[in-house]
Specification:
Largest sheet: 5 strands, mixed
Strand content: under 5%
Distance between the termini: 93 Å
Oligomer: single chain
Radius of gyration: 26 Å
Structural class: mainly alpha
Number of domains: 3
Number of helices: 22
């Protein structure tokens, strides 16, 4: 007999978050960061370079290259999506959008898909009979369907509240594709015990797509681990079919990934205490505030000691968390792999909501209120300092960290930031009011605060962020110097900068050699001493040296070809 669950919830506590409010909130989180942003260094613009090479027919679809190099991620699907979108824009829409925006559009949809998959995955998972709330003696307990919907609302808010989600989920990189597929796989595995046939189709497609995105090792581990975790929950008539189907698909996907060299991450465990400390620190802030609630959830839903640990009711999200966190630690993939764990962390955090004591909920609220209010206040103060020079110290810090940045006032971003700040004030006022019985109430301020700070950064600070995180300042200096030739040889440059030279600055580029015709040569400053081994150094003279506004990063040296008779 199953032991009683720790979920003692009345029907009054399972009121759904109003759909319009939830949709508008998700929209306010998704759009900022995609709109008005230049391609950022280095993964963002590097991925864009591969997409545009494919779209223009300059690379093989199964072996994409940029400057003669394959993608470090090993995947194909992310670059295909961007390239198909660019080709659709060019062929069907008649260049209605810029190539950068066209490549970015599928990734906007992927983030929306991720949020939807997280919600529906938690909703399906919460319908497990072992997770349903306790029945009251005289009725009045939560309706199972309303209970699952409320937990899904809270889990989605917990997902958005995770601090590590904001930047990586808004970049045009394979990381977002893999995140969306992990969310989809979590959703389909959660559906598997309820609708085995539909779940099996979804899992199969998800595993294949995850392999093509560059993570066949994750696909193998999740396929085998989750099938084992759900083995007793799958209906007996289709159990063998599902187990064999998912297991065989997982193995075949891994073998396919090896054959096509799609494996992104290889075993590279931390060897020193400092590396372990870095991994722990990343795990702490990247998954905040979901991880403390997840820990409480695992403890609250623990089984009595005489039960098998491997029959824990939260075993499915625990397998997802274990696989992705292990990949983070053991492969050195850091934040890109840890990003994939967030859907499972959100599910675990949602399952803590029915068991939270009022004092714990109040502590979450007050900490969140102080933290995000202070962050929002600092963002506003620094923006005012940039615009007016007062206060002087923040203005001086910005001038030191972002030299050559010229400020300008933008009206509509200012209006959006002001509206978001007023909404935050209203949300705080609503939350500190009484009689807020809904289970998702403890996640409103964390999610609202994360969305507020992200929106403020991507409106008020976007010009500064573009200056500091894009190649535009450096590309402008290079373009101004080499015009009207518009042609440059390169040696030792990072792939992101090469993509910027070719697709943002629209320059003609060649690999450095004596047979190349371009009269300019751009070299990474750290390897200037290798130039004589590539070209005849006597034919070149140094004319300029620049660095990225962020001091010490991507310093380059520009040479011009010495004309005959020139001394």
């Amino acid at each position: 007999m199953n032991s009683p669950t720790p979920s003692i919830v009345a029907q009054a506590a399972v009121r759904r978050l109003p759909r319009v409010a939830l949709w508008l909130f998700c929209l306010a989180y998704v759009v900022p960061g995609f709109w008005g942003r230049d391609p950022w260094r280095s993964d963002d613009i590097e991925a864009l370079g591969y997409m545009l090479e494919l779209a223009r027919g300059s690379a093989d679809w199964f072996h994409p290259k940029l400057a003669g190099e394959f993608p470090a991620t090993g995947g194909l699907l992310p670059y295909w999506l961007g390239a198909w979108s660019v080709q659709f824009n060019q062929g069907v829409l008649g260049h209605a959008l810029s190539d950068t925006w066209a490549a970015r559009l599928p990734f906007v949809g992927l983030l929306v898909w991720t949020l939807s998959s997280v919600w529906y995955g938690i909703y399906s998972f919460a319908q497990n009979p072992r997770l349903k709330p306790v029945a009251f003696a005289f009725g009045g307990e939560a309706n199972p369907k309303d209970y699952a919907q409320t937990l899904a609302d809270g889990g989605l808010l917990a997902f958005i509240a995770c601090l590590g989600l904001a930047q990586l989920s808004h970049e045009t990189t394979p990381a977002l594709v893999q995140l969306s597929l992990l969310a989809w796989l979590f959703c389909t595995f959660a559906v598997l015990p309820i609708k085995p046939q539909l779940g099996l189709i979804g899992v199969t497609l998800g595993l294949v797509a995850l392999t093509l995105s560059g993570a066949p090792n994750i696909a193998l581990a999740l396929g085998l681990g989750c099938t084992w975790a759900l083995r007793e929950q799958i209906p007996l008539p289709v159990r063998l079919k599902v187990l064999l189907g998912v297991g065989v698909t997982s193995v075949l996907c891994y073998l396919l990934g090896l054959k096509w060299n799609l494996v992104s991450w290889h075993l590279a465990p931390p060897l020193s205490l400092h590396q372990w400390q870095d991994a722990g620190s990343l795990l702490f802030w990247f998954t905040w505030p979901a991880w403390p609630m997840a820990a409480w959830s695992v403890w609250s839903w623990r089984q009595p000691l005489d039960h098998n640990l491997f029959r824990h009711p939260l075993l499915l999200p625990l397998v997802f968390t274990g696989v992705t966190v292990s990949a983070t630690v053991l492969t050195g993939a850091s934040d890109k792999a840890l990003l994939l764990s967030l859907p499972a962390w959100a599910c675990l955090a949602a399952m803590a909501l029915p068991t939270l004591q009022r004092s714990v909920s109040a502590l979450i609220d007050w900490f969140t209120l102080l933290f995000f209010t202070c962050c929002g206040f600092m963002i506003w103060v620094i923006w005012i300092a940039i615009q007016t020079g007062v206060p002087q110290q923040p203005a001086a810090n910005v001038a030191r960290l972002a030299p050559d940045f010229s400020t300008r006032f933008e009206f509509w971003p200012f209006v959006l930031a002001l509206m978001a700040t007023l909404c935050w004030a209203w949300l705080v006022r609503w939350r500190v009011g009484r009689h807020r019985a809904a289970l998702w109430k403890s996640m409103v301020l964390p999610a609202g605060g994360a969305a507020l700070c992200w929106l403020l950064l991507t409106t008020l600070w976007m010009p500064l962020l573009n200056h500091a995180r894009s190649y535009d300042p450096l590309l402008q200096k290079i373009s101004n110097q080499i015009q009207p030739d518009g042609c440059v040889q390169y040696f030792g440059l990072p792939l992101g900068l090469i993509a910027g030279l070719k697709f943002q600055a629209q320059l003609s580029i060649e690999t450095a050699s004596d047979s190349a015709l371009c009269p300019w040569l751009l070299v990474d400053r750290d390897i200037v001493y290798e130039v004589p081994g590539i070209v005849n150094a006597s034919q070149w003279k140094q004319v300029a040296a620049w660095g990225h506004p962020k001091e010490g990063e991507e310093d380059v040296v520009l040479f011009s070809k010495v004309l005959h008779g020139q001394h």
